[in-house]
Amino acid sequence: GDTQMAVQYLKELAESAETPEEAARYRRRVGEAYEKVEDLPNARQAFLDALDHVRDDSEALDCLKRLAEAEEDWPALIQVLQREVGLWIGSRQIAVLREIARVTETRIGDPLVAMDAWRSVLEKKSHDIETLQHLLALAESQEEWGTFVEVGNTLATISTGMERSTLLRRIGLACEEHL
Question: Which pLDDT band holds residue 20 (cuts at 50, 70, 90)?
């Protein structure tokens, strides 16, 4: 009753809003109203409608991420994060790319797609240690020995001491046994 009346009123305000930002704000309010009564599909649609008005509406994106995480809808979370990638540059963009790779690896559990996601991080920051370590572990687990050797060699150039020695030994064994 009351929620539907509020939603209808907010939708009318969004339709008559003078600026895209104002319309987006009203659409977010619609989403929040739906979220309060646990109507998550309509909440999600309202937040997407807000993005139709202002494509980089960080509040709407945050709401969509929150809904996806609460529902453990990892593909939906990836979609929101992919929208965010295009909005940022530099370290913020790299952080979002890392999050996509982490979610793909740990939540979705698709190692080959996760490898591609980690490679996207490397395209922006070629000697990122965390990324190289994840990619190395995934390549080894998937027996992608060419990738293992390539990533291992890159990681070895920025490693030192015992870590470097151990890594070079693993690379040598991989070459001898698998390539």
Answer: very high
